Amino acid sequence: MTTDRGGVTLIELLVVLVLLGVSAGVVGLALTRAPESPEAGEVAAILARARRDAMRTGRAVTRTFVAGDTARTVTALPDGRLISYAGTRMDLLSGKPSRDSL
Questions:
Q1: From the CB of residue 86, how many other CB atoms can be counted at a distance below 10 Å?
Q2: What domain range includes position 47?
Q3: Is 19 part of any domain?
Q4: Residue 70 contacts residue 86 (beta carbons within 8 Å)
Q5: In sequence order, what are the residues at sequence separation of 6 or more whose Cβ sits closer than 8 angstroms to the Cβ of residue 60?
Q6: Cα dihedral value 74, 75, 76, 78, nearest 10
Q7: How far is CA 82 from each of CA 30, 44, 63, 69, 92, rounded to the nearest angstrom?
Q8: What is residue 38's predicted lDDT score, i.e. its pLDDT?
Q9: Which of 21, 49, 50, 54 could link 63 by a cystine bridge, Cβ 3.0 to 4.6 Å?
């Protein structure tokens, strides 16, 4: 008398979990990348230059720039932090558009 036990082996379960993990990672990366406008590149360059100047000189550096129809002011501190006085809707660490601005 033989009994055929139906079920899933541990290897099959691990393969399915790995495939789900890889596909979730690919989808997650695709969703987190914000589309970059031409203006975002210019703003990122301004922020990077202000940060670099502040770190090089050891003094706070303030830059004002126009993004869209609004003038925005950002101060770079000597430790590399950026302080925004108006809603730049940019990630102040990377200089890219923040997710809530999409």
A1: 12
A2: 38-95
A3: no
A4: yes
A5: 54, 75, 76, 77, 78
A6: -170
A7: 27, 12, 11, 22, 6
A8: 65
A9: 50
Total domains present in the chain? 1
pLDDT for the residue 101: 45
C-alpha to C-alpha distances, 26 to 23, 42, 58, 98, nearest whole angstrom? 5, 29, 41, 20
Q: pLDDT tens digits, residue range 47-62?
A: 889 999 999 999 999 9
- State the pTM of this model: 0.50
Map 55-100 to HEC letters: HHHCCCEEEEEEECCEEEEEEECCCCCEEECCCCCECCCCCCECHH
Written as six digits, the tokens of 18 are: 């790995």
